[in-house]
User: Which sequence fits this backbone?
């Protein structure tokens, strides 16, 4: 039995990768992206139809999968949808409050909403865990599709729960990264060596995740595990959520400000560990020549 095509909007780094996974799994796709070249690049991999606007996209499939770079972009697309019976399956990471608001608007239009943010597994840039929130019946409808997108899929509750957990997981990693960078700044200022500290952390039984943070700070890879622009977006979203809830949290403020500074220095496409470069400029402490790509 032939599967119904899946509509996809957003063929950036992650969206393009997921589109290729679906083509390899035998799905036909209807795609929309501002960059037509990205859509054409998929055509040699399987059945791909390219459309020119959102109206065409939502008419060609009953499930619309979105993978967009910002909360604003998600809102613009979601609020423009008007096809009753459509499932809007959003993989972007937004605030829980935004997800709940969009769910209310879409539900009034007869459109089902499922949030399914993807969390990258530590040290594996191509491996994901997906968190799903929405109405049980709608989640059941897209469950097989979700299984093609991620290695593990978890249903975590009503709309808002998936965004909350995914944002927390992402920002917790970023806070660990910044904490490691600040500790290393103190060590370097006192004449210590980066590699020696990394070796000691390993000897003392640091977890694989902790060691990954040290290694990322040491290398600041040109091929990012998580691009700094994505880390900066997540840090800003978490700070905005905290403020929305009336919480004044200094660690979240610090993360947001440091990632904004790194963005301003032009490190958007580098690994999130490039935040260390902003810290060097702020403190005047150089962390040595061990890091590549500076």
Assistant:
């Amino acid at each position: 039995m032939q599967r119904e095509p899946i509509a996809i909007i957003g063929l950036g780094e992650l969206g393009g990768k997921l589109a290729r996974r679906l083509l390899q799994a035998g799905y036909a796709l209807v795609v929309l992206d501002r960059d037509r070249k990205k859509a054409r690049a998929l055509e040699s991999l399987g059945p791909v139809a390219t459309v020119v606007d959102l109206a065409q996209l939502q008419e060609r499939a009953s499930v619309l999968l979105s993978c967009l770079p910002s909360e604003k972009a998600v809102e613009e697309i979601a609020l423009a949808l008007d096809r009753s019976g459509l499932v809007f399956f959003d993989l972007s990471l937004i605030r829980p409050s935004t997800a709940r608001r969009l769910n209310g608007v879409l539900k009034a239009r007869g459109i089902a909403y499922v949030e399914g943010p993807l969390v990258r597994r530590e040290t594996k840039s191509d491996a994901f865990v997906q968190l799903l929130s929405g109405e049980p019946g709608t989640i059941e409808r897209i469950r097989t599709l979700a299984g093609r997108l991620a290695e593990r899929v978890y249903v975590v509750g009503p709309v808002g729960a998936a965004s909350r957990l995914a944002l927390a997981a992402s920002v917790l990693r970023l806070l660990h990264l910044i904490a490691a960078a600040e500790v290393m700044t103190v060590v370097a200022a006192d004449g210590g060596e980066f590699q020696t500290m990394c070796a000691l952390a390993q000897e003392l039984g640091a977890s694989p995740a902790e060691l990954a943070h040290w290694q990322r700070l040491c290398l600041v890879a040109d091929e990012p595990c998580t691009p700094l622009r994505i880390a900066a977006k997540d840090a800003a979203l978490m700070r905005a959520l905290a403020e929305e809830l009336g919480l004044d949290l200094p660690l979240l403020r610090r993360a947001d400000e440091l990632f904004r500074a790194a963005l301003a220095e032009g490190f958007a496409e580098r690994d999130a560990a490039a935040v260390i470069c902003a810290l060097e400029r702020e403190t005047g402490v150089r962390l040595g020549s061990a890091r590549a790509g500076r």
Q: What stands out?
A: The chain has two domains: 6-158, 165-283.
